[in-house]
Amino acid sequence: MKVAVVLVAILGCSNALPSLDWSKIEPNYAYVNPVSNLSVPVLPRIVGGREVVPNSKPYQVALIIDGAHFCGGVLISSTFVLTAGHCVEGRAYIQIILGAHNIREIESTQIVITSTNINVHPDYNRLNLNNDIALIRFPNAITFNNNIRPVALASASAGSFVDYEGTLTGWGRLSDAQTSIASTLHAVDVTIMANFWCSRTYGTSVIIDSTICTSGVGAVGGCDGDSGSPLVVETALVGVASFVAQTGCQQGLPTGYARITSFLSWIIQNSDLEA
Asked: Which of 77, 115, 215, 227 is catalytic?
């Protein structure tokens, strides 16, 4: 895999994607080392969820990476999107789709922005997916509407969120049997678990203080194509999807995320948000 890099050139905006062969758009994913004989984590998709009301999650964005790979992302301001570091590490350009519901169609609500301004967290570790977070900057600020609106970030004093219910959204695959991402945006309600228990599955080199996990009990969580997508508690962003178990997204194992409250200083220093 490639070494993390920050790219600074910016491409222009457009209102529609060029024609895409969606059968060739691959959901992005990565691996971390297993613990003993436990599962090797990979990156997530929505399983055990439901289709959302169109445009009811106006902060959700889709990313087409180098015209070949797919990830999710989350709008945090008129100029910046957050996503997973592994989605954009070493990549050349990102097509950001805002206001979408059916990602395979050109909808009137959609706006497409192309950018090469990518900032991967400097401590991102591709071996264990620690600090798996990145910022993408738009060439110009966008105008919000009912279909495109940022999410608030969880505050530094919000706590661990253990036992809280959150909602993960994304276009990732809906079952282990499927071979491509979903056409429409889906959501799943998941329970945030203590890192101690999550580390029993993935190990303490993967599960660190800046990780947040949700329980997979009931075969719910993320999978391929949901990497970079938002985990929201009530109205606040608490995590960016990073990994699940290689053994399958319906195996009942936890989903892991970058914990937003651990990265607030870095986000504020590198974006237009204020403390």
From this structure: 227
